[in-house]
C-alpha cells in the first residue's frame, strides 16, 4: 500500500498535489512519501515481533539522507555496501553500531573507515577479504565483529541480474565450505565471529527460495555451534519483492515472511537481522515526467517524455515494468489507447513501455511512474548530459526538495580541461 492516490481527479502524494510539486521544481523529478516509507519499515519491524531483531534498510535502494534519517528515526539500522554509503549513513545520523557492511569488494580503505567510525558487523564474503579485515583490525588495535556470507546455492527465481544465491554467483562462500572458513576466521585474532549471513537475491515473489536458504542456515548454525563458534546473530539479507504491476498477484507480505522466519529459525535463539531495500522504498516513490511530444509513427503513437533511461534505468536494464499513470485522473469511461512511452535519449533502449494502454495524452500533460522509489534515483546518470533530476520528500501537507536539480553550469564545470589544450 502507498500514499499516492487521486483526490478530486488529481494525483496526490499524501496531502500534496503532484502538480503543485511539478510547478515548484519542474519535471522530471522523484517524489517520496514519508508515510509509505514508515509504513513499510513498520510492517517488517512488527513481522519480527517476538524475536530479538534489527531491520537494517539496504540503503543502496534509495540512499538520500532524508530517506535514511526518516527510517533511522523510526529505529532502522542500515546495510551499506561501500565506503560512500557508510559515510552517507553516518552523515544522516545513523550510529555505527546500527550499520552493517556488506559487499564482495570492500577495500582496506573502506574497512578502515568503518572500523574507525564504528560498525555493527562486517558481512565477510571471501577468505581474501577476511585476511585484509584481520590485518586492518589488528593494525588499529580493534577486533572486527563478523558474520560470513554463505552462498546456499538456491534458485531465487528472479531476474538473472539480481539473483545472488546460486553457486555460480560471485557472492559469499559456498555453504559446503563454511566449516573450514569459519575455522580459519576463528584463528584470526583481529576477528570475532558473531553469526551467519545470507542474501539470495532481489525482487523475490515466492517464499520458497527464502525458506530453503534459511533451512540451510539453521542447519549450519547447529554445525558451527557444535564446532565451538559463538553464533548469536543471523543476517537474512533482503530481497522480498513488490508488486510492480497493478492486478498482479501480490508477493508474500512481510507478515508472511516474518512467520516463515519464525518457523525456520525461531528455535535457534539468535538475534535476527534483515536487510530489505526495495520493499521499503520501492512503492514509496514516483518519478514524475511531462509529455514533450505525442508523435504518430508507423502504426503506433509515441509518448515522448522529458524523463529518460538515464533517470530511471530499470526498464532498459532489467526489462522491468512500471505502472505509468496520468497525473490528472482519466474521466470514467474514457477510451484508453496504446502508446509506446519513450524518453529523449538517443538509444532505442530508452523505452519505458511498448503499446501501453493510457488515456489520451497531450504535450504538457504529466505522468507518474509508480514503484520508482527503489533503484531509481540511485541508479541515475547524466548520460546525454542530462542533469540528475531532483528528489522531493512529502510529509503530510509539506514537501521539501531533498536533492536539488544541478544547473547546467554545475554539471558542465565538473570537467577540467588539461593545460596542454
Ligand atoms: C541489494 C541487497 C539487499 C536489498 O535487496 P532488496 O531486494 O532491495 O531488498 C540486501 N542485502 C544485500 C547484501 C544486498 O546486496
Summarize this entry quickly.
With 421 residues, the chain is α/β, with parallel strands linked by helices.
Please give a handful of descriptors for the protein shown:
single chain; 421 residues; alpha/beta; TIM Barrel; 2 domains; nine-stranded mixed sheet
Overview of the structural elements:
There is one protein chain. The chain folds into two domains: 4-31 and 283-412, Lyase, Ornithine Decarboxylase, Chain A, domain 1, CATH 2.40.37.10; 35-281, Alanine racemase (TIM Barrel). It has twelve helices and 21 strands. The protein has helices at residues 18-25, 34-47, 65-73, 83-91, 108-117, 127-140, 178-186, 208-226, 254-265, 278-281, 314-318, 408-412, and strands spanning 4-7, 10-13, 16-17, 29-33, 53-58, 77-80, 99-101, 121-124, 144-151, 173-174, 191-197, 233-235, 271-274, 285-296, 301-305, 324-326, 337-342, 351-358, 366-369, 391-395, 398-403. The strands form three sheets. Strands 4, 14, 15, 16, 17, 18, 19, 20 and 21 form a nine-stranded mixed beta sheet that branches. Strands 5-6-7-8-9-11-12-13 form an eight-stranded parallel barrel, surrounded by five helices. By secondary structure, the protein is of the alpha/beta class. The relative contact order is 0.16. The model has no long low-confidence stretch (mean pLDDT 96). The radius of gyration is 23 Å and the shape is globular. Helix 4 runs parallel beside helix 5 (108-117). Bound molecules: pyridoxal-5'-phosphate (PLP).
Amino acid at each position: 500500500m502507498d500514499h499516492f492516490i487521486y483526490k478530486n481527479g488529481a494525483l496526490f502524494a499524501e496531502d500534496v498535489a503532484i502538480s503543485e510539486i511539478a510547478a515548484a521544481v519542474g519535471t522530471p523529478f522523484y517524489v517520496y512519501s514519508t508515510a509509505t516509507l514508515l509504513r513499510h519499515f513498520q510492517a517488517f519491524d512488527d513481522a519480527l515481533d517476538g524475536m530479538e531483531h534489527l531491520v537494517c534498510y539496504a540503503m543502496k535502494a534509495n540512499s538520500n539522507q532524508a530517506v535514511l534519517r526518516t527510517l533511522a528515526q523510526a529505529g532502522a539500522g542500515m546495510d551499506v555496501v561501500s565506503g560512500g554509503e557508510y559515510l552517507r549513513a553516518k552523515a544522516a545520523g545513523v550510529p555505527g553500531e546500527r550499520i552493517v557492511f556488506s559487499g564482495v569488494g570492500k577495500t582496506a580503505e573502506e574497512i578502515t573507515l568503518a572500523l574507525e567510525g564504528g560498525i555493527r558487523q562486517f558481512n565477510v564474503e571471501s577468505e581474501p577479504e577476511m585476511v585484509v579485515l584481520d590485518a586492518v583490525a589488528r593494525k588499529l588495535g580493534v577486533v572486527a565483529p563478523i558474520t560470513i556470507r554463505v552462498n546456499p546455492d538456491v534458485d531465487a527465481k528472479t531476474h538473472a541480474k539480481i539473483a545472488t544465491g546460486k553457486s555460480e554467483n560471485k557472492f559469499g562462500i559456498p555453504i559446503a565450505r563454511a566449516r573450514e572458513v569459519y575455522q580459519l576466521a576463528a584463528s584470526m585474532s583481529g576477528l570475532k565471529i558473531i553469526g551467519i549471513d545470507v542474501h539470495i537475491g532481489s525482487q523475490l515473489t515466492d517464499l520458497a527460495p527464502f525458506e530453503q536458504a534459511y533451512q540451510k542456515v539453521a542447519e549450519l548454525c547447529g554445525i558451527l555451534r557444535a564446532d565451538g563458534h559463538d553464533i548469536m546473530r543471523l543476517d537474512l539479507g533482503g530481497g522480498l519483492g513488490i508488486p510492480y504491476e497493478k492486478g498482479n498477484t501480490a508477493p508474500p507480505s512481510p507478515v508472511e515472511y516474518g512467520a516463515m522466519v519464525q518457523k525456520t529459525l525461531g528455535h535457534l535463539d539468535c538475534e535476527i537481522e534483515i536487510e530489505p531495500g526495495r520493499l521499503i522504498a520501492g512503492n514509496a516513490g514516483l518519478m514524475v515526467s511531462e509529455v514533450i511530444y505525442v508523435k504518430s509513427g508507423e502504426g503506433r503513437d509515441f509518448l515522448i517524455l522529458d524523463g529518460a533511461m538515464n533517470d530511471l534505468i530499470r526498464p532498459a536494464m532489467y526489462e522491468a515494468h512500471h505502472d505509468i499513470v496520468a497525473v490528472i485522473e482519466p474521466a470514467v469511461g474514457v477510451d484508453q489507447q496504446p502508446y509506446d512511452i519513450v524518453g529523449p535519449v538517443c538509444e532505442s533502449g530508452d523505452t519505458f513501455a511498448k503499446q501501453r494502454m493510457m488515456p489520451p495524452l497531450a504535450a504538457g500533460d504529466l505522468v507518474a511512474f509508480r514503484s520508482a522509489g527503489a533503484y531509481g534515483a540511485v541508479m541515475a546518470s547524466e548520460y546525454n548530459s542530462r542533469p540528475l533530476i531532483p528528489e522531493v520528500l512529502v510529509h503530510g501537507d509539506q514537501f521539501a526538495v531533498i536533492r536539488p536539480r544541478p544547473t547546467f553550469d554545475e554539471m558542465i564545470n565538473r570537467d577540467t580541461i588539461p593545460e596542454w589544450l
